[in-house]
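Shift notes (night). Ran Sulfur oxidation protein SoxY while the centrifuge was going.
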Amino acid sequence: MFKNTTRRSMVLGAAAAGASLALPASALAQTSTAAKTPLVGPLAPNPAEFQKQLAQFTGKATPQSEGLQLDVPVLADNPSAVPVKVKVTLPITEQDWCEEIIVLADLNPSPLTCRMQFTAAAGTAEAAVRVRLSQSQTIHALARMKSGKVLVAKQAVTVAASGCGM
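Came back to this:
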C-alpha cells in the first residue's frame, strides 16, 4: 500500500510540475505482449519502420551530408550502451537553427533510438547519448534546420554481442 501511494503521488507531482512521460506505441505494444509470451531468440529488424521514420523526418527535403557530425565507435564492446555523439556544425543563428535531431538504428526492432528538440536559445545543437543495438548495423543521425534543410550522417558499427532482447 505504501509503495502504491508513493508512486501515485510521484506521478501526480510530475504531472503538476508540467513534466510528462510518454512511450512510443511500439514500446507499449511490446510491454503488453511481453508478459504473455517470453522472448526467444533475437528480435527481428523492422526495415519498414526504419523507412517510415526516415520518410517522416525528411518529408520532401533532400538530405545533405554536410553540416552534421556523427561520432560513434566502429567497434561497440557493450551493445547495450553504445555512445553516440551528434553535433550540427552549421552556424546557429536567430534565423536558422537546428529544431530537431533523431538517431536511427536501421536493424533494431524499434529503429528510433532517440529524438532531441532544440530552440534558437540553445546556441548550439549537440548531444551525447547511449543507444542499445541488436546487432552490427548502421547508425543514422538526421537534423532538421528551421530553414527546412535536413542534414544526415551515418556510421557502421560492429557489436560484440546482441544488445536487444538480452
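The CA atoms of residues 63 and 150 lie 5 Å apart. The first helix runs from residue 2 to 16.
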